[in-house]
Design a protein that fits this description.
47% helix; alpha/beta; five-stranded mixed β-sheet; elongated; 401 residues; 3 domains; Nucleotidyltransferase, domain 5
Length: 401
């Protein structure tokens, strides 16, 4: 069979196709070393003499109706006088440790963006475990490292990726949304591993870091980035207030009469939703509740007033608003609200820092949905390093689109 067309489809630098054997179940492409080329050391380029030659086989992309293509090629060993060692020369298009070409591996990696590994065998003759290894190797080789230069602000949060409280710590560039770091765990060491990657100049450029009120993250940032301001995330604070209000609701329900319990029951989301998000039926139901329960009415009004803090542009005015809110909450003598207000007073500077940097973890919360989709498509994640690579891939796709 003529090999000219196969040479165009299956090129191998330094090798020529000697023959092609076709069968109904496979195609075998036989290579030989191009005698016009000089055998050189793959590391230093020094001319080598051939010591021995062995025949090896690798898989390549399918062709036509044949599901499998074998590449049979000579692996040549020579002695490099410069390196003082024996070196092996093989086609660069073939992975050094996998019995497959980079063409096949990159095709599988592209396919893995859209198809779960356990369904891969129905499209191409590659088992799920092998496809996972191919994808991992290709992503390691092809994806660029995150850019740590010129970062002005960071977003830091944790995300559950496994059952049994299996968490990872995520770090994103607040301006671009680029994933910079992913590490197993949600303690100090998880975030310290990120700062260990940065040079002093890269650390110095960071002006703000947005986090929830986690003491572990805060301690690391204050130690590693003393010049950066900590910004407590707006959405985490509103979530914490929502939990305090829900605790008030549960207490009111416990001490209520049977008639009042029927009014309080089922009102949790009406109390926690913002007024603009309530349905007409929800507005009527909530109004009836607030009319007969003073503590829940007070908690609901304080919830809406708390949102006003993020409408100010200057830290001084935001601080005055926050201090006034704390006084109102303490005057209610409602224990969950007083407890929340005391914590807010303690963290006032980190809350009003939003006015200077205007960053929240909203972008990272959206990124968490991408993490969930990647894990679902992969039917779970065995390797955190591989999850990081897959998320880098998704980030590149999103930026391009």
């Amino acid at each position: 069979m003529k090999t000219k067309n196969f040479q165009a489809v299956y090129p191998f630098e330094g090798y020529v196709i000697e023959s092609v054997n076709c069968a109904s179940v496979c195609i075998q492409i036989n290579l030989r070393w191009d005698q016009r080329r000089t055998l050189r050391c793959p590391d230093c380029g020094t001319k080598m003499g051939k010591n021995r030659e062995s025949e090896l086989v690798a898989f390549d992309l399918p062709c036509g109706g044949s599901p499998v293509v074998y590449i049979r090629y000579p692996s040549i060993q020579g002695c490099c006088s410069s390196c003082g060692r024996y070196k092996t020369v093989r086609p660069e298009e073939i992975h050094p440790t996998r019995k497959a070409t980079w063409r096949l591996m990159r095709f599988v990696s592209q396919l893995a963006r859209f198809v779960p590994f356990d369904a891969m065998a129905a499209l191409i003759e590659v088992p799920a475990a092998t496809a996972w290894r191919y994808d991992n190797d290709v992503l390691k080789a092809d994806l660029p490292e995150p850019d740590f230069d010129g970062i002005e602000a960071l977003l830091v949060d944790e995300k559950a990726v496994r059952k049994g409280h299996g968490y990872v710590t995520l770090v994103l560039n607040a301006k671009t949304g680029e994933l910079l770091h992913l590490h197993e765990g949600k303690k100090k060491a998880s975030l310290e591993a990120f700062f260990d990657k940065l040079s002093p100049e890269q650390k110095a450029s960071i002006k703000a870091v947005c986090i929830d009120r986690s003491g572990a993250f805060r301690a690391v940032i204050e130690e590693r980035l003393p010049q950066a301001q900590i910004v407590f995330d707006k959405f985490h604070l509103l979530s914490n207030l929502g939990k305090a209000i829900d605790e008030v609701r549960r207490r009111e329900y416990t001490g209520a009469t049977s008639e009042l319990k029927n009014v309080i029951k089922g009102q949790r989301f009406n109390l926690l939703r913002h007024p603009e998000n309530l349905t007409d039926a929800g507005k009527v139901s909530l109004a009836a509740l607030l009319e007969i329960n003073e503590n829940l009415q007070t908690a609901y009004l304080l919830k809406d007033q708390f949102r006003m803090i993020w409408t100010y542009e200057k830290p001084g005015w935001a601080r005055r608003c926050l201090n006034q809110w704390v006084r109102w909450a303490r005057e209610t003598a409602i224990e969950p609200l007083v407890r929340f207000a005391n914590g807010i007073q303690r963290d006032a500077e980190q809350i009003v820092s939003w006015c200077r940097h205007r960053i929240t973890n909203g972008r990272i919360e959206g990124f968490n949905s991408i993490v969930s989709r990647v894990i679902l498509k992969a039917r779970g994640i065995r390797s955190i390093d591989y999850l990081f690579l897959k998320l880098l891939t998704r980030r590149i796709i999103n930026v391009r689109t």
